[in-house]
Amino acid sequence: MLTHKPVLCWLATVDARNRPNVSPKEIFAEIAEDHLVIADIASAGTVRNIRANPEVCVSMIDIFLQRGCKLDGTAEIIAADHPEHPALCAPLTAMAGGHFPIRHVISVHVTRRSPILAPSYTFFPTRSEAEMRADAYRSYGVQPAATGR
Fold first, then answer.
1. Are 23 and 46 in contact (CB under 8 A)?
2. Fewer C-beta neighbours within 10 Å, C or N terminus of the chain?
3. How far apart are CA 97 and CA 82, in angstroms?
4. pTM of the model
5. How far apart are CA 93 and CA 126, in angstroms?
């Protein structure tokens, strides 16, 4: 399971003519070690590509920790009339909060998982997670949100 909190993932697909496409997705949930679901909100190209070639790659990165994971697998388009749709769509609907219509569930069965690490992890292996976050906040010109409310 994920050990970080990415807010976006990038879904890579290939169309029927073998042209790659990468598309950001913001509503997704890892429901098992080998199973990820992604909401099709406005992903007509992604859906078309998966129907032509179900092999996909999903990258997720916590930009403040500068690490994440790459998930390779096979995707299936789950329409609203599919018997598994309600269960697979439930975590996505909870995340969307009614703000986005979910047209399909993109169900990804993960066959391989690989880490993604920024070069900083190689060049500065003793740097703490707090130091990594502080460097990222400086790089992006942001401050952590206040907590305790």
1. yes
2. C
3. 22
4. 0.86
5. 40
pLDDT in tens, the chain (149 residues): 555 567 789 999 999 999 999 999 999 999 998 999 999 999 999 999 999 999 999 999 988 888 899 999 999 999 999 999 999 999 999 998 888 889 999 999 999 999 999 888 889 889 888 888 888 888 888 887 776 54
Extents of the domains making up the chain? 9-140
Spatial neighbors of 92 by CB under 8 A, at least 6 apart, are 27, 28, 29, 37, 38, 39, 102, 105
59: Cβ–Cβ under 8 A, 6 or more apart, which residues?
Answer: 9, 10, 12, 68, 69, 70, 71, 116
Hey, which bits of 15-99 come out as E strands? 20-25, 28-32, 35-40, 55-62, 67-78
Assess if CATH 2.30.110.10 describes domain 9-140. yes
